[in-house]
Design a protein that fits this description.
Alpha-Beta Plaits, 2 domains, ten-stranded mixed β-sheet, 10 strands, about 25% helix, about 30% strand, globular
Length: about 240
């Protein structure tokens, strides 16, 4: 039987979502809980891979297990056996087998939000979830710049060092916008897939635009250049959150 999961986690104390033998990860935490519940090793698969420090509200995953336990009971059992910085929001039966539910392959789009904060002082309560910028940000200029991202483009300039050099760098961005909510500015982007560090490098360029360090046209120029590492300003991981799949 195959079970689909919607997972929420605070990435602060995780070394990413993907399993690592010598570090605490989201996948490792869930698989450890499954071992306690079913007394066997069960592999978990995610729709999107998140780096160390990145958060998620709507990560999607799945695992296979032969059990009569109802999905909601599995959800409760998993949450019981895990620390509170990772929660299973939903568990349900999905189609199994070779042609069954595949979180990564079946995902048509992924939405992330990067949150800046330009308050006079760094916020105490939200410091793990927003990136504080010491200069005032012009969210209108940032939003104007982000519009160049929409559509099918070569994002090689925004690819991080772990992005394979022989892999395609074309990505289709469905939506991109920047809005202010009080002292916070949210950059929201939806695409079919993302390259390593792509969003954090885009956020770095938008931050430069917002503080008058770069012109609005710079995003379009970087897309046209398509030169690896050209967008070198990488924003911290803790400001990034996977919203939904």
């Amino acid at each position: 039987m195959r079970f689909g999961l919607i997972v929420e986690y605070d990435g602060t104390n995780f070394h990413g979502s993907q399993l690592q033998s010598n570090a605490r990860t989201v996948q490792g935490e869930i698989e450890s809980a499954l071992l306690q519940i079913f007394s066997e090793k069960i592999r978990v698969h995610f729709a999107s891979r998140t780096d160390s420090g990145v958060h998620a509200r709507g990560q999607v995953g799945r695992f296979d297990a032969e059990t009569d336990m109802p999905p909601d009971q599995i959800r409760k059992a998993l949450n019981f056996h895990m620390t509170t910085d990772v929660r299973i929001r939903c568990a349900q039966l999905v189609e199994g087998g070779p042609d069954g539910f595949d979180p990564r392959g079946d995902a048509s789009a992924r939405t992330y939000v990067y949150t800046f904060n330009d308050a006079p002082s760094e916020p105490a309560l939200d410091r793990h979830y927003v990136t504080h910028v010491r200069k005032p940000l012009d969210e209108i200029a940032m939003n104007d710049a982000s519009q160049a991202l929409v559509g099918l483009h070569d994002f090689a300039s925004f690819a991080g060092p772990k992005a394979p050099h022989d892999a395609p760098t074309m990505r289709n961005v469905e939506n991109a916008s920047t809005t202010r909510i009080g002292d916070s500015i949210e950059f929201k982007i939806t695409a079919n897939a993302f390259l390593h560090q792509q969003i954090r490098r885009i956020a770095g360029v938008l931050c430069d635009v917002g503080t008058d360090g770069s012109p609005v046209a710079v995003v379009g120029e970087l897309l046209a250049t398509a030169e690896r590492g050209a967008a070198s300003h990488v924003m911290p991981a803790h400001g990034l959150c996977l919203e939904n799949i």
